[in-house]
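Customer escalation, tier 2.

The customer says the design service returned an amino acid string that "doesn't look like it belongs to this structure." They asked us to rerun it and document both sides in this ticket. The original structure tokens are below, unchanged.
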């Protein structure tokens, strides 16, 4: 079965966790797309929820499908968030941000009681780092951060959109770094990166995930912490 079908299988399993009255965090990306589409159908069939979107793209899609979108401030706290990932390891640690929405995704995950990650089977890894780790930086500081990351042997590459710098929903830059060869522990790496002024967030999600649902062929494999 293709990765696209596996994404859909995982998404359809995840929406079973959504119940009437919940405040739901909506992730971003091609896997999250199937989840949002399914929630849209559930809402048309009478489900009553409120949602917080992790990107402008997700917000637009959710509203188009008739899902009631509120701000994080209005929500205060979320019952459940469903989001995709670029890599997930056996300890439920993730690399996220391939789609550039890592900052809002991490904020929403932090404010959710229960976080479900949905992915096709290609995203499961024994060790994080084949996928380049996205770092969100303040444009004022990006070039100097790139120099600092080069000195740390993390091979930074600024993300581009054609000839222009890629911009996040918060109008920040993304720098993708290579953590595969570093022997720094992930928790230490996260701490080191976050201590550089101008780095707003990293795509390392080390502790937020409660449940992982992997589409494997036509089956949804549910992994609990
Ligand atoms: O972190 C993300 C966006 O910032 C996505 O969840 C991640 O990139 C996975 O995307 P997809 O489901 O399209 O493979």
């Amino acid at each position: 079965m293709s990765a696209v079908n596996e994404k859909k299988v995982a998404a359809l399993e995840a929406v079973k966790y959504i119940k009437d009255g919940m405040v739901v965090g909506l992730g971003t990306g091609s896997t999250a797309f199937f989840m949002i589409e399914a929630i849209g159908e559930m809402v048309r069939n009478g489900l009553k929820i409120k949602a917080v979107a992790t990107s402008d793209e997700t917000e637009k899609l959710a509203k188009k499908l008739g899902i009631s979108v509120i701000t994080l401030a209005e929500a205060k706290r979320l019952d459940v968030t469903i989001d995709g990932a670029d890599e997930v390891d056996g300890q439920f640690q993730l690399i996220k941000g391939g789609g550039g929405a890592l900052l809002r995704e991490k904020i929403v995950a932090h404010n959710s009681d229960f976080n479900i990650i949905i992915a096709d089977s290609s995203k499961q890894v024994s060790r994080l780092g084949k996928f380049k780790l996205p770092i969100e930086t303040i444009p004022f500081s990006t070039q100097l951060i790139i120099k600092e990351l080069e000195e740390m042997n993390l091979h930074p590459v600024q993300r581009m959109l054609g000839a222009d710098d890629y911009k996040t929903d918060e109008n920040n830059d993304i720098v993708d770094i290579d953590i595969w060869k570093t022997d720094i522990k992930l928790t230490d790496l996260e701490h080191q990166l976050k201590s550089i002024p101008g780095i707003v967030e990293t795509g390392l999600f080390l502790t937020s995930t409660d449940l992982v649902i992997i589409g494997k062929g036509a089956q949804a494999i549910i992994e609990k912490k």
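Tier 2 assessment: The sequence is consistent with the input. The CA atoms of residues 87 and 123 lie 5 Å apart. Residues 3-123+206-215 form a domain with the Rossmann fold fold (CATH 3.40.50.1360). Sent an explanation to the customer and offered a walkthrough call.
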